[in-house]
């Protein structure tokens, strides 16, 4: 595989889906404008939620790379960041959407075409899951691309998406990638194995859940999500998101200011490297989107993130306090993917 930079992967994604008739939609703010129940934008579908809920629109096909934060509320990864090589408080989510236009066949074909023919991922490292109880259609479509032993049955917990107790919902199919290859990794799918990871979730929004059950929707929609940093790590053949050029410039600055070296291990020092580099990106994005430090809401979460970054930088990495401001200036907008 050819080495990919942040810009190269974004160009490839937008170019592909534009060629398939999708309108490129800019990332919305990390502060949701249409959902007061969320502290932060936590997925690509947030800015399209009103459309998915039935709002009329002339938009039929869309693609976006959305800035997301998961550091408060239902989706909160703050306490996990640093302890492994793949959790983040800030990340970007690539996605494509269809609003009453194409459906399962095209959504699956686009995903396969982009991964295998554009990005050149090895086919024998790919596995997919589908909801066995109500989505035989996806299974039959996937049989055109994969042998049956790599098309894996899954239950409602893993492969059925719901917005809430009522409202739009539907089955999903997920694409997983085996970082090691050359083996049968089907038993490791959906088992939290760090080497067999989900890279693409395709949701088929075809039902409306009511208090009495499921009703078919007249306007069926597609909602997909791909973790940008995770896919970038695969394309560059590294096992850690923190070894991609989303993070390496920040980590090198930490090394220069602490005389310590990042080794991508599960040590306390490497945990600190990951936490500080992640939190630096999150703080920068929040400030860009006009989040202010405060005692409540998003501002309170931002304070917690800053405190956690400073604590790791000072207590573990022994960064001198006078270096905190200099480090922050070096690692603001230019190191946000």
UniProtKB/TrEMBL annotation:
GO MF assignments: alanine-tRNA ligase activity; aminoacyl-tRNA deacylase activity; ATP binding; metal ion binding; tRNA binding
Keyword Nucleotide-binding: yes
One term under GO cellular component: cytoplasm
Protein name: alanine--tRNA ligase
Family (UniProt): Belongs to the class-II aminoacyl-tRNA synthetase family.
Any matching Pfam family: tRNA-synt_2c
Main enzyme class: ligase
Enzyme Commission number(s) from the entry: 6.1.1.7
InterPro entries: aa-tRNA-synth_II/BPL/LPL, Ala-tRNA-lgiase_IIc, Ala-tRNA-ligase_IIc_anticod-bd, Ala-tRNA-synth_IIc_core, Ala-tRNA-synth_IIc_N, Ala-tRNA_ligase
Residue ranges occupied by any Alanyl-transfer RNA synthetases family profile domain in the UniProt entry: 4-327
Cleavable signal peptide: none
Reaction equation(s) it catalyzes: tRNA(Ala) + L-alanine + ATP = L-alanyl-tRNA(Ala) + AMP + diphosphate
UniProt KW keywords: Aminoacyl-tRNA synthetase, ATP-binding, Ligase, Metal-binding, Nucleotide-binding, Protein biosynthesis, RNA-binding, tRNA-binding, Zinc
Domain of life: Eukaryota
Provenance organism: Vairimorpha ceranae (strain BRL01) (Microsporidian parasite)
SUPFAM superfamilies linked: Class II aaRS and biotin synthetases (SSF55681), Putative anticodon-binding domain of alanyl-tRNA synthetase (AlaRS) (SSF101353)
Taxon lineage: Eukaryota, Fungi, Fungi incertae sedis, Microsporidia, Nosematidae
Any one Gene Ontology BP term: alanyl-tRNA aminoacylation
């Amino acid at each position: 595989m050819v080495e990919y930079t942040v810009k190269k992967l974004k160009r490839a994604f937008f170019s592909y889906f534009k060629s398939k008739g999708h309108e490129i939609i800019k990332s919305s703010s990390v502060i949701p404008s249409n959902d007061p129940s969320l502290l932060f934008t936590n997925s690509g579908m947030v800015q399209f939620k009103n459309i998915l809920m039935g709002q009329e629109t002339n938009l039929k096909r869309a693609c976006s790379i959305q800035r997301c934060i998961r550091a408060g509320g239902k989706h909160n990864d703050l306490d996990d960041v640093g302890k492994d090589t793949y959790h983040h408080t800030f990340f970007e989510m690539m996605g494509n959407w269809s609003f009453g236009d194409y459906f399962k066949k095209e959504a699956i074909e686009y995903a396969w075409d982009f991964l295998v023919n554009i990005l050149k991922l090895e086919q024998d490292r790919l596995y997919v899951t589908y909801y066995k109880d109500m989505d035989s259609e996806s299974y039959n479509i996937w049989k055109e691309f994969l042998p049956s032993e790599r098309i894996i049955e899954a239950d409602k917990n893993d492969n059925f998406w719901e917005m809430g107790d009522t409202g739009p919902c539907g089955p999903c199919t997920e694409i997983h990638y085996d970082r090691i290859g050359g083996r049968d990794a089907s038993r490791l799918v959906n088992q939290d194995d760090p080497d067999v990871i989900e890279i693409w979730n395709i949701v088929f929004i075809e039902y409306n859940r009511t208090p009495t059950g499921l009703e078919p929707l007249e306007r069926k929609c597609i909602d997909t999500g791909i973790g940008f940093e995770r896919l970038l790590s695969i394309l560059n053949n590294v096992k850690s998101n923190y070894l991609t050029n989303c993070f390496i410039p920040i980590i090198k600055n930490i090394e220069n200011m602490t005389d310590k070296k990042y080794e991508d291990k599960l040590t306390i020092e490497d945990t600190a490297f990951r936490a500080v580099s992640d939190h630096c990106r999150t703080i920068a994005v929040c400030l860009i989107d006009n989040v202010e430090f405060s005692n409540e809401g998003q501002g309170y979460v931002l304070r917690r993130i800053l405190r956690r970054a400073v604590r790791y930088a000072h207590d573990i990495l022994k960064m001198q306090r006078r270096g905190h401001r200099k480090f922050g200036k070096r690692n603001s907008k230019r190191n946000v993917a």
